[in-house]
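Good morning C.,

I know you're traveling, so I'll keep this short. The sequence:
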Amino acid sequence: MLPTTELCTMTHAKKFGFNSLGVACALLLCLFPSCHSDDQIVTEFRDDGAHLFNNIEVNPSNGIVYVGAVNKVYKLNPNLLTWNAVITGPFPDSIKCLQGECKYEKPLTDNFNKILLVDEDRDWLIVCGSIFQGVCEVKDLNNVSRIVRKQDSQFVAASNATASTVGFLSKGPYQQAVLVVGTTVATHVIDGRIDVSQYWGKIPAVSSRTLNDTASIFDFAVKSPPPSDKGTFVHFQRGGTRYELTYPIEYIYGFTDNDFNYLLTIQRQSLEVGTPYISKIVRFCQSDVEFNSFTEMQLNCGDYPLLQAASVGPLGKELAAKYSMSANAKVLLGVFAKSSSSHSGIPVSDAALCIFKIYDIDKTFNQSHQQCNEGYGSSISWISSLNCYKSVSDSLCKPDFAYLNGTVPISSSPTATFTDTFLTAVAVNSIHNDTVVFLGTRNGTIMKLNINSPTSAYVYDEVVVDAGSPVNSDLNFDPEQQHLYVMTEYKLSKLRVQSCYGHVTCSECLGARDAYCGWCFTDNNSRCSMQGECLAGDWVYYRNSYCAAIDRVEPQHLQVTQKKTLKIYVSNLPAVERAFICVFDVGLRHLETVAVKQEGGSVISCSTPDTDRLIATLVPSLEEG
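The tokens, ready to paste straight into the viewer:
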């Protein structure tokens, strides 16, 4: 007498997938070729380590990838094969001179890429570097070695290796296209002392630059006629204390939303040396011709004061509902770090992820403007030194009081915290009502998080991209949102957003809780896949779903010589209308019988093989044994 389950086999699961019914093992294991060891890194690009990578940009229309590096700009196809490239340095340069003739020595100087932007409307690639006082040029999207426009007299980017520059495309006054730029003051050793270039005054801290296809490209979008010194820019206070040397502002990220532009920074809480470093968010109206709407607010993420990277993206339906938002509504995500001391701007490896509703950000900005109109508040100290006064103006874009320093912080509690981890990058995507966040680390890994609620998340996967090399803050999806481009110091990697193919059983697949993955039940190739890849099958998602499993078989024992109908009780059996079979492993051979799903959908019946067939198969097996 043999137990029934010993007569059933999982071997033929590879032929019939899930619908080939054997024992519990057959329902849970896939032993077909498409289940393979997972390799999420699809392809990589490096230039023999010759050029430190600075920025990456992906054309959302065609997936073409552009890389800005020290002394080089590359155009790559979506699979990271080089189409063409151009040398951008080193060139003879001196911080004391403009481009051209110079009475000072001009050593060969590396050109650090500071801004790299695809302008789809004009088929331009905007490139700004650190040499020649931080000038920009426009390159042809199809051939990066071809310069379309150049303006040597407009200085835009920071002119050393380490000073930050953030740029993004937006609308400006009178609906003109502009480049919005935040530029950290670049210091140099000049004649034996730390100082700024004599041309530094032409580079405001924040500005909007015209992209009109004229000789004035990269000039300020609007500049009031003399003697006024106002326009689409803000400078440090002139005269007296040189705050540009004592009050550093590091620009981390910038974006546009509706009628406003935003910049995120790290700076001291006040002009006084020794005060704590904090994170701030700046907002100003796109239509503002004098930047009077330029306002700063403190940005808080629990006990983590130092913003390291940020991005704007959509929330999945379930998380959006918990924020009282519509599905795919955009939020601001930031990764923050603790500081090494209460007065230090140096981050340590304790990190947090915070999520901010843009609606709440705007609401707090608007409240601060209302308080200023009531006489409470003051101006941004590094720009001006004035106090708010009572005003009847209710215009956010043409306020009576300029350069407001908001008094009410914009705060969020951490969604996730990490010890002994230094986060350097963040990107977000929504899939199947879920919200997936990708985090880059200083150690060269990508962590994948599924966000459950505003204060709850779990890491479900980690990928080592480039061990020991920090992940650049630029994380870019391909146009189909199926891959993520991850850049480290000398390598660019294309990663699958999902790890479905590495899971070979249903329980592994659903247990991974990868929001991109589900178990695909097909006639001949059941597997872990994305929903779009399960074209001819039934796809089971990890959320609120379970793998099928055999609970019991009746009868539990039977004689080999006795033909009997078996009842197999299966939990979580998918509602498929395909044929089932039972596969019996007898020695080294396999016998099949037709199986029928009974009413109710949880019981499958099949008969054991004919006695003659069973004995004919079993006797040679015993002799061989």
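Safe travels,
E.
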